[in-house]
Amino acid sequence: MKNQIICFLLVVNSSILFSQVKQTEVNTVVKNMKTQELAWNEADVAGFMKYYWKSDSLKFIGSKGITYGWQKTHDNYVKGYPTKEAMGILTFTIKEATQLSETSIYVIGQWQLNKEKPAGGYFTLLWKKINNEWVIVADHTS
């Protein structure tokens, strides 16, 4: 009986610890997104792109279809938002952030650009932990 109680307590403690680790990882991703907001609002596209996977396998899905690759995604942002005024002020509202595994987090949210002609929509992001860093590997923004 004593061994069963010890096993039970170990399982409960492990579950609590894993839950705390998951929340810490989700908090890291949410913090990264806040850093992205700040970079965007300073017209710092390179800073905004820091959290995108610097790979040809990055996928950005928007109204014009799928863009593959970090460089092409970066170039599209620069082309679409050539000035600080065009970039406006970005605000993310996270609706859901769920850790799917030790190396993946799924985020659903809303974005709003306050500028002369306001814009906004929704996004779904897949974040992966690669080389011990959380990066966006797929971004579907509408």
Helix content: 40-55%
Number of domains: 1
**Sequence stretches where pLDDT stays below 50 over 5 or more residues:** 7-21
Shape: globular
The count of helical stretches stands at 4
Arithmetic mean pLDDT = 90
Separation, N- and C-terminal Cα atoms: 57 Å
What percentage of amino acids are in beta strands?
Answer: 35-45%
Structure described in brief:
The protein has 142 residues and is an alpha+beta fold.
What are the key terms here?
6 strands; alpha+beta; Nuclear Transport Factor 2, Chain: A; 6-stranded mixed sheet; 4 helices; 142 residues; single chain; globular
Descriptive notes:
This protein has 142 residues and is of the alpha+beta class. The chain has one domain (2-141): Nuclear Transport Factor 2, Chain: A. Helices cover 42% and strands 37% of the residues. It has four helices and six strands, in the order ααββααββββ. Strand 3 (89-101) and strand 4 (104-114) form a beta hairpin. Mean pLDDT is 90; it is low at 7-21.
SSE layout:
Blueprint: H1 2-41, H2 45-49, E1 59-62, E2 65-68, H3 70-80, H4 84-87, E3 89-101, E4 104-114, E5 119-130, E6 133-141
Parallel strand pairs: 1-6
Antiparallel strand pairs: 1-2, 3-4, 4-5, 5-6
